[in-house]
Design brief:
This protein has 490 residues and is α+β, with helices and mostly antiparallel strands. 24% of the residues lie in helices and 28% in strands. Strands 1, 2, 5, 6, 7, 8, 9, 12, 13 and 14 form a ten-stranded mixed sheet that branches. Strands 19, 20, 21, 22, 23 and 24 form a six-stranded antiparallel sheet that branches.
């Protein structure tokens, strides 16, 4: 099945973008060192790093981070729909996009949708968003589990990326797209399987990448009567440099236009990778340049954009490059295995507690828990978290006179802290303390993404949406906000 999509007036396109990479970058050299006794071929692949989630991160938390980056300069109330694309959804039957929406404090009238089932679910969702003409937030994230000593363990990475589509203040105009649906099984994961099953690389390259992608690109360029020489940036997620050059050559596109696929820097982030590479290409593009984006997975999506003058602002900030530069190297392969539940450590009796969630209590307090919304007294202007029926100011104590006060975007700093090696934490020690918010308000909360000894009184903080706890017995994951460091790109 194939379908050609063309834009119509008024023009639609991309208005805002945001990206997220976990701070930790696992050295591939450490993976090869641990597993080369079983698979000597890993040694040759032990270059660069892969971005890996912390113990309290998943596809939802990364999606929230990328969406916050995209919406930091935009109007959240203007968003009409939120699409979440991922092949590693934390919940199979609880709308993941709804959690993201509440964490972002978006309007309840929002349309939300989860898209999954293929690594091109993000590009297919992007086509749908652009075709609707609405102001939509599309965010994609993947945290793919990989089998130890596998080739895939060396190539994938965790990441998220977001784009906002609309018709006003475009940084990139949508020119058209072309899609094919072909059940070419390059890899798959059964419903209850832990890991992807990947087929032979040469067959994927020869029968998939080098056939399906050039056909789709050539068809789109013919439909738009566009000369291949006009393409300035060719984005090919999942294709190495040699395959990318071959695809470009078959389409008469200059090989120099093939974008860096960031494999050495962070790894292939699955369904999020096309959007992450698009965001990277946008910050390296000049106004008036054409960008060709490819999504591959049981078929092919090809989208064409042309940048506007507004892309210059992104070029001066280079947010994706800042995220790449802000990573912290980690060579503790055993810790990575534990965090991803690939080995089971003995965490003692403290890990045996029952973590059942009161769903009724959570529903009543979801704005507080998921949205990190406190209160501000209408009488004395005192902020407080959590919001209570009575003002926290001892000189006021007025009842029932508070309005909502969001805390997640407020500047904050460490007031006091503890590094607790006795408390249960899956990446010890447990770090927590009092956080002082600018303008008033002190909250006792956990810290995240800090190394041992890195937290200090007065350290500037940024709020991060993270996994708070998990009820493994009933398969329910709880989220809340934690205080993290401010680093390059954040």
């Amino acid at each position: 099945m194939q379908q050609v999509h063309n834009t119509s007036t008024p023009l639609t396109g991309i208005t805002l973008v945001g990206s997220y990479l976990p701070r930790t970058r696992l050295s591939r050299k450490s993976i090869a060192a641990a597993n080369s006794w079983a698979n000597p071929g890993l040694v040759s692949k032990g270059k660069g790093h892969r971005a890996v989630c912390s113990h309290d991160e998943d596809a939802i938390t990364m999606a929230v981070a990328a969406a916050r980056a995209a919406l930091s300069a935009g109007d959240c109330d203007a968003i009409q729909a939120l699409y979440f694309a991922s092949t590693t959804l934390p919940f199979a039957d609880r709308q993941n996009a709804g959690i993201i929406s509440e964490a972002l404090s978006l309007p309840t009238s929002l349309k939300t949708l989860d898209a999954t089932g293929s690594l091109r679910c993000a590009t297919s969702s992007l086509i749908a968003a652009l075709s609707s003409g609405e102001t939509q937030l599309l965010v994609a994230a993947d945290k793919r589990r990989t089998q130890p000593a596998s080739a895939m363990e060396m190539t994938v990475g965790d990441a998220a990326a977001a784009v906002v589509t609309g018709q006003q203040e475009l940084m990139a105009t949508y020119l058209g797209s072309y899609s094919t649906s072909v059940d070419m099984t390059d890899h798959y994961r059964a419903q209850h399987a832990e890991f992807d099953y990947q087929l032979e690389e040469r067959w994927i390259r020869e029968e998939g990448l080098l056939k399906l992608i050039p056909q789709a690109i050539e068809t789109l360029l013919a439909q738009l009567a566009l000369d291949p020489g006009e393409i300035a940036h060719l984005i090919l997620p999942g294709a190495d440099s040699r395959t990318g050059a071959a695809i470009a050559g078959r389409c008469d596109i200059a090989q120099t236009t093939v974008c860096n696929n960031l494999e050495l820097e962070c790894g292939n982030s699955g369904s999020a990778h096309p959007l992450l590479l698009l965001n990277s290409a946008l910050e390296n593009a000049q106004p008036g340049e054409k960008i060709l984006l490819v999504g591959f997975g049981q078929g092919c999506d090809v989208l064409l954009f042309e940048t506007t003058e507004l892309v210059a602002q992104l070029g001066s900030e280079k947010p994706v490059q800042s995220l790449l530069d802000g990573g912290v190297e980690d060579d503790n392969y055993q810790r990575y295995l534990s965090i991803n539940q690939l080995v089971q450590l003995d965490w003692g009796m403290r890990a045996e507690r029952d973590n059942k969630t009161s769903q009724s209590a959570f529903y009543r307090h979801r704005k507080t828990v998921t949205g990190f919304i406190g209160g501000r007294c209408k009488h004395c202007d005192t902020p407080q978290f959590p919001r209570r029926p009575i003002c926290a100011n001892p000189e006021c104590r007025r009842p029932g006179e508070q309005h909502d006060e969001p805390f997640k975007d407020k500047p904050a700093e460490v007031k006091s802290f503890t590094e607790d090696w006795l408390a249960l934490c899956y990446n010890p020690p447990l770090k927590y303390g009092n956080v002082r918010f600018e303008g008033g308000g002190v909250v006792m909360m956990e810290f995240t993404d800090f190394d041992v000894g890195e937290v200090q009184v007065g350290t500037p903080l940024r709020m991060e949406f993270r996994i708070k706890d998990e009820d493994n017995k009933r398969g329910f994951r709880r989220y809340f906000w934690k205080a993290g460091p401010i680093y390059s790109g954040r």
